[in-house]
Amino acid sequence: MAEPGAGRPRAVGLLGGGVIGGGWAARFLQNGVDVRVYDPDPRAAEKIAAVLENSRRAWGRLTLAPLPAEGRLEIVATVEEAVEGADFVQENAPEREALKRELLARADRAAGADAVLCSSTSGLRPSLLQADMHRPERLAVGHPFNPVYLLPLVEICGGERTDPETLARAASVYRSIGMEPLVLRAEIDGFIADRLMEAMWREALWLVADDVATVAEIDDAIRLGAGLRWSFMGSFLTYRAAGGEEGMRHFVEQFGPALRWPWTKLTDVPELSPELVEKLVAQSDAQAAGRSVRELERLRDDCLVSVLQGLRANRYGAGAVLERHERELFAAAGAPPDSALDTSQPLRLHEATVEPEWVDYNGHAHESRYLQVFGDTTDALLGLLGIDAAYLDGVGSYFTVETHLSHLREASAGERLRTTTQVLGCDEKRLHVFHSLYRGDDLVATAEQMMLHVSAKTGRAGPAGGEVLARARAIAAGHAALPQPERAGRRIATP
């Protein structure tokens, strides 16, 4: 695994702050990178703020990994201001070759000699975009997918005069902010993913134009069938699995002849007549069912978060990328120095807001959500003790073996909660903690937990590592002077 923060730029200049530029701004800012944006749109700041709000919400639901302190955002008046002092420049202007060439040429003249320049173009060859640059060797395409702050893929494509080192540096930058670069082997119009999507788009247009299906039916055919497989298997792995024990060879032998059947109109594009456009618009409006763009964006983000988390559980596809980035974030956060620990009072490790989906039919947070918040608090404690990715892989971690919950008050949607933690004791293998959950000054719930340290090598109980154990003992020693929590040691008993 790369060192935490390896390749991450200190500052980034963005040329264009629309849907894609705003997504890049959110992705960089939430990974602790300062961002300057040039966009002549007077509403640029407002639009980027809306995207950033969506990103914060999505990442708050996606992972418990501690994101670094958010970078600073500045909207500037010129290209030159945007790229001044930037280690990395990302151009996100509309798909007009002349405009992109002008912006990149200006950025090339103004940016520092070591800065890498990338374009978010979805189809223009980088060799065309390099035409007016004095240092074309530092330009590459870095084509992302919307929403940029959630989807990990970025296609990297070099032009005729691109230095291979530029491709490597761009890939390093993208990996540092939790993305997965796909470096193209050759320069080609539309790159890889858009060529595949364009083929499906052409066929879908014919199905609508010929009244074979509506836009909603076509989307159902994708999202309820092959699209679910594609999210983790892709195309060729899906076909190989469909070939059974004999694999891809059998699949090709069985279905290869169908490629010559007159099924498709991929080389024959329907005219986008006013009638077809109106049909598409009407059906699409009906499919949206009155939901606003913001509502659709949040629905999209929530579904993507669910898919990404599901894939992470299997450490596969985009889930493996998320898991890698989470480990890097945990490692980068690290444990604070011992001098920063205040053990004269219970630790304040976690805060949470009661989400609407936490609320059950009784109108308050479901009891499982209390355990979720206490679990998040325990994770924060483990991070405080210094349990990072290297420790997890090489030594082990603490696992909860017993929990005693007390539910004292109800929590409603939108309420802000905070936890405190008191370490009641520890030895080489055990860690005894007491969490308290508050809404303001009101005690809402408590959780007493016994944790056992498990060895990464044997999978059985084993002593904690020296520094982790020393820190746990130091906290326990400090907390020994505190009053015993009122509900500590309680058990369920018949009156």
Give an overview of the whole structure.
By secondary structure, this protein is an alpha/beta fold. The protein has three domains: 11-191, NAD(P)-binding Rossmann-like Domain (Rossmann fold), CATH 3.40.50; 194-290, N-(1-d-carboxylethyl)-l-norvaline Dehydrogenase, domain 2, CATH 1.10.1040.10; 335-479, Hotdog Thioesterase (Thiol Ester Dehydrase, Chain A). The chain is 42% helix and 18% strand. The chain contains 16 helices and 13 strands. The chain has helices spanning 19-29, 44-62, 79-83, 97-110, 126-129, 164-176, 193-209, 215-233, 236-242, 247-255, 274-288, 293-313, 318-333, 367-385, 389-394, 466-479, and strands at 11-15, 34-38, 73-76, 88-91, 116-119, 139-143, 153-158, 180-183, 347-353, 396-407, 416-426, 430-439, 442-455. The protein has an eight-stranded mixed beta sheet, sandwiched between helices. It has a five-stranded antiparallel beta sheet with strand order 9-11-12-13-10. Strand 2 (34-38), helix 2 and strand 3 (73-76) form a beta-alpha-beta unit. The termini are far apart. The model has no long low-confidence stretch (mean pLDDT 92).
Structural classification: alpha/beta
Distance between the termini: 55 Å
What's the helix-strand series?
Answer: EHEHEHEHEHEEHEHHHHHHHEHHEEEEH
Q: What is the annotated CATH architecture of the largest domain? A: 3-Layer(aba) Sandwich
CATH class identity of the largest domain: Alpha Beta
CATH topology of the largest domain: Rossmann fold
Determine the strand fraction and express it as a percent band.
Answer: 15-25%
Overall body shape: globular
Strand order of the largest sheet: 3-2-1-4-5-6-7-8
Provide the helix percentage: 40-55%
**What's the total number of strands?**
13
| Rg of Cα set | 27 Å
